[in-house]
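As practice, study what follows.
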Amino acid sequence: MTRLRKCLAPLGSVVALAATAVVPTQLAGASPAAAEASYEWVALGDSYTAGVIPAAGDIFEIPRDGCERTDRSYPQVIDRDLGSLFDLTNVSCGAATIEDVTFRAQQPVGRHLPPVSEDPDYPFPAVPPQSEAVRAGTDVVTVGVGGNTLGFADILLKCLELGSGSGGVGTPCKDDLAAGIPARLAKVSRDYDQMLTKIHERGPKAKILAVGYPTVIPADTSKCGYNNLEQFASITNGDLDWLRTDVLEPLNEAIEKSAGAHTATSFVDLYDSSRNHSVCDTGKWVDGIFTHVPDQAALVHPNARGHRNAADHVTSAILNTIG
């Protein structure tokens, strides 16, 4: 869920260092699709689907399109596991909103974060609305999106800014932003309903799996150390509690409710299985501001272990869907 360019300035040294650490990589090519696959599967989504960060693998598309799909993201893991059964079309894209999936062409940003980081391949051509990859013959659609419509990255960055210098005390971010969260969640619900309707129209026989978000913040936020750059840096524990209970958990609830209101749509819960693998847990499946300080930024995204867990649950859901 990375929509960062306009928010770099207020973050000071933390984000400057993070952006400097994120440099473009072009490595191995994608594994070929199965020649005789039985089912057509389309993967839609944002950076929690695409992978994006180095800890989720290498960018495999050459030339890059700026969406930053990585070879250890869950669609690619499933494709390697079940490639003889499914023909995968993966059009997930970092920074995608629900509207980018539904109807709007997206301008991918790659890893271009001026003024502190320049991507040599930027600017990237616009990519079509992701829903256009769904066809009449599509059998399965997975979609993991919503965080950018909520504005989670902007909220996170504001919490970093407001928590700086607080000593970890209080809830400065909640105090500033809480009143606007219900309207953000309402937009997620409206846009998600519109997206599912569009996907059903384009792929009338497709089974749709709405993939939720994993646990990012632990129930016990005392595990999170203030100013720990491999966790949440300057966000206070009080604000982390608020982000968990009033922002992230309601985001999953909104997605699940929308999925339940549409036929041929099921919700894939990643939250429960990842409860003990948050940013602040040992054996984390989601990395914090950094994976490693100072040379590998993550900006709060799933690592390869988190994508492996997602792959396991999405695989089970897909097989149940076609079974």
Residues 1-34 have pLDDT under 50 and may be disordered. Residues 237-260 form the longest helix (24 residues). Strands lie at 39-45, 86-90, 140-144, 207-211, 265-268, 286-287, 290-292, 296-297, 301-302. The chain has ten helices and nine strands.
